[in-house]
Design a protein that fits this description.
mainly alpha, 88 residues, 66% helix, single chain, 0% strand, 5 helices
Length: 88
């Protein structure tokens, strides 16, 4: 999971994207989907008590973000998500 988070952080910070950010609205779609996959994955694979320990907001806010991430992550094929969060 640490590798997935590190790789995602590098991708999000990188000026190179699958869809260039200078294209209005559409340029941020890949970034939003990646963030949703990561959030959905973290909330599915990490114990909720541990997430809440480090979450600065309220549990209700986390639940809303989790629902939005689940909806967005549904657009990504399961095999891709499994590869991102595969152990090892």
């Amino acid at each position: 999971m640490k590798i997935a988070l590190g790789a995602a952080a590098l991708y999000l910070l990188s000026p190179l994207d699958l869809i260039p950010d200078f294209i209005p609205f559409v340029g941020y779609v890949d970034d939003v989907l990646l963030a949703a996959i990561l959030m959905d994955g973290v909330l599915n694979y990490v114990d909720r008590a541990l997430v809440m320990k480090y979450w600065p907001g309220s549990p209700e806010t986390l639940d809303r973000i989790a629902r939005a991430a689940r909806i967005l992550a549904a657009w990504v094929p399961r095999r891709i998500k499994q590869r991102v969060f595969a152990p090892g």
